[in-house]
Amino acid sequence: MAAHRHFDKICAVVMAIAVALTLWLMGAEGAGRGGAPEYERKLFDDSRVHRVELAVEDWDAFLQNAQEEEYVPAQVTVDGEEFRQIGLRVKGNNSRRLTGEYGLSRYSLKLEFDHYVPGGSYHGLDKFSLDASFQDNSYLKSWLVYDMMDFMEVPSPLCSHAWVTVNGKDWGLFLAVEEPEEGFARRNFGPGHGQLYKPDYRSLRAENADVALRYVGDDADSYPNIFENGKFPVTAGDERRLIRALKILDSGENLETAVNVEEVLRYFAVQVFVMNWDSYLGHTGHNYFLYEEDGILSILPWDYNLAFGTYALGMTDPIRDPTVLINFPINTPASGEVMRKRPLYHHLMKDDRYFAKYHEYFDAFLAGYVESGRLEERVLEKAGQIAPYVKRDPTAFCSYEDHRLAVETLLEVCRLRGESVRGQLSGEIPATIRGQQEQPEARLDASHIHLEDLGDFDDLRRAAKAGGSPG
Predict the structure, then answer these.
(1) Which tens digit of pLDDT belongs to each residue from 157-213?
(2) Angle CA(359)–CA(279)–CA(265) in degrees, nearest 5?
(3) Considering the entire predicted model, what is its pTM?
(4) Nearest CA among 160, 161, 157 for reference residue 188
(5) Which pLDDT score, from 0 to 100, does residue 433 have?
């Protein structure tokens, strides 16, 4: 009898382990390709503004050392749930530099849950950022573009607005954004996901051919801006697959064997619509994530605070004419010099089949998201949700009145951009730079638009003159 009792106990333990393992596997599978991880239902429930409370031992020293981008230990409470020993640092390039230069302290932040605690996470999410809405008086640019990308079924970071406090004091309204790392990869591509990179330049003065996704030989050392920015350990096999894909892309032939063509075309439809030149299609060529799985490349969205024609950083002769910007051609969304160095766009557009599909996706996006009223409904709903928080934001880069003007301007920009793109698809408006230069009268008139109302350097100057952000 004793032996039977022990046998029954062993069976019970084995069954319990089996059930637990099954549930774990179900959770793991549910976190990728259609499943919703726990953090998506919590922090990234976009139906409300969340609360993120930071506790930092020496916040003043943290702000003073912001340009170093070094992690410090912190405690974060998300919607009442406390997490200790998370890594906190300032994020951004020009936004970080200029925020400091103007004497302000409203920096965007990164929160890394596994920085000090191996395996640490927020319900399966290893890292998220708090975007400060630099040069975005609407507080909506990045949120809106990610929503557009999601509509077009391009894997995109989750995001939601959050009210942030620091050491018990209000710090302001930020956009919480899922950082594309392990949690993002599992959610979008499953537990057996591929490799993820964030190509970025070391210096704008360099050639940065790898950031532009150009093939420059079979030596992995020729691609430091890609392989040194892998989100997971990069193996020799990873290097070989990616270089092979770039070589095929460089040839311009059999592109479907190296590129997730339809997804990439959907990405470019949105990317070109929102007139974002702080991107792969701009001078810098960065601000995107590169995903590779089984030798197939995808480009994923990132960083849109300078979208909707407001990018001027680093440009010696930036385009300011709203009529030129609103009508910017969808077939040549950059100068020929830039386009020839952006093979992921240029070589796809040279294929008649993909060129036609690109236009089909533009048509679907306009009809389903812009002209259907979805865009206006989403913006007005979100603007109403965040309005009480913008009103009392102590570190805001702009006034509440400027915010309301920015929301109205954003809606008008999108409306006019939609009309122009529709005209370009129908042939009423030239869809190339040369065509518009030869027929400027065909452009949609957007002279009444003031794109600086979306957020500009003058807002930073006024904020600095008013005394800057509280420390």
Answers:
(1) 999 999 999 999 999 999 999 999 999 999 999 999 999 999 998 887 788 999 999
(2) 25
(3) 0.91
(4) 157
(5) 95
Identify the segments of the chain with pLDDT beneath 50.
1-34, 314, 471
Q: Which residues pair with 51 in a beta bridge?
A: 163
Residue 101: per-residue pLDDT? 86
Question: How many other C-beta atoms lie within 10 A of the C-beta of residue 63?
Answer: 18
Largest CA distance in the chain: 96
Question: Is 86 within 8 Å of 116 (Cβ atoms)?
Answer: yes
* 463 three-class SS: helix
Q: State the residue for tokens 């048509």.
A: 363
Candidates 131, 140, 136, 89; CA nearest to 110 is: 89
> Tell me, what's the pLDDT at 23?
32
Backbone angles phi, psi at 390, to 5 degrees: -65, -40
Tell me 341's DSSP state.
T
Q: Is residue 90 within a helix (H) or strand (E), and if so which, with residue range? A: strand 81-91
390 contacts 396 by C-beta, under 8 angstroms: yes
Amino acid (one-letter) located at 124 = G
Q: Helix, strand, or coil here: 376?
A: helix
pLDDT given for residue 98 in this prediction: 86
Which residue stretches of 191-321 are H helix?
Answer: 224-227, 236-251, 261-273
Residue with the two structure tokens 């990069």? 234
Q: According to the model, what pLDDT value does residue 25 have?
A: 38
Q: β-pairing, 127-131 with 159-166?
A: unpaired
Question: Amino acid identity of 398?
Answer: C
| CB distance 454 to 141 below 8 Å | yes
Among residues 69, 155, 146, 150, the alpha carbon closest in space to that of 112 is found at 69
Q: Which two tokens stand for residue 98?
A: 């200029």
